[in-house]
Amino acid sequence: xxDIDINKATEPYEYYLKFIKENCRPDNRRLSDIRPCNVTTNxxxxxxxxxxxKLGSTNVICGINARLCRPKxxxxxxxxxxxxxxxxALCSSKxxxxxxQSSSFSQSSVSSSTIEQTQAMLSQLMQDILSESKCINExxxxxxxxxxxxxxxxxxxxxxxxxxxxxxxxxAMVSAxxxxxxxxxxxxxxxxxxxxxxxLEYKSLILYxxxxxxxLFAIEENxxxxxxxxxxxxxMKTFVHICTIDSxxxxxxxxxGGFCLKIEQLNMCITRALDNGKYIRENVYKNKY
Length: 289
What we know:
This protein starts with a helix and ends with a helix. It is built from 7 helices and 14 strands. The strands form 4 sheets. Strands 1, 2, 3, 4, 5 and 6 form a 6-stranded mixed beta sheet that branches. It has a 4-stranded antiparallel beta sheet with strand order 12-11-13-14, sandwiched between helices. The chain has helices at residues 2-10, 12-20, 109-112, 115-133, 165-178, 230-233, 263-285; strands at 37-41, 49-55, 58-69, 80-86, 142-144, 148-160, 181-183, 185-188, 193-196, 202-204, 212-220, 223-226, 238-244, 250-256. By secondary structure, the protein is of the alpha+beta class.
């Protein structure tokens, strides 16, 4: 047992490959398995919608604030959504990169980027997921054309980063949107101002799709793994994001870094993403609402 610990510290990549060759991982998962995923909703009472997601040891909290604003001039009949993801340095000791870090393997853009770059990339990814999945009709956020609409500020904070923050952020965002409550409001044209109904009446936001993001990565040309933890992310040479909206439809697919994937490998990624999306919708989203 002592020899294994020494090998893990001195030759982590070789130590990890020994498990992969046996079609398993050091945390006892198969190559296609994701970590346990649990969601707690309505965990923040000062916002319109909230959720806390635990994907293995990765924890992400989401809060959605709804604010009234004037619609954009080029979209007078629509509200809009602003996503922001924060990955504080203190959520993982591995966020502090050392200049002497081993170069025996090629790191992915996620594991080697700065905190600011990671946050910007994740924020844009969440924005793209909402846009491409068409889960929200932004016209329903408009109260009075050209005068008044809702803007949803979606803030996601990683509390503990043990890898695959992006998948946890997607689950947290969708879960918070599913329990979002907006109070009824009307627009008084004579006085040119919004009017709130009392007693307050709330309505839910309709979600037309339930996107699920699945991240897969490769450490060798013929080895694909699902849901990397923080230790595994250090070994990534290429990775793929696939977002599904039901058991047969994909709304977003991206490959970043590394070598090209063969057709059969890409098909395997799509199959795993569709299966994972079905599992999350049936066992995480549906069970909470």
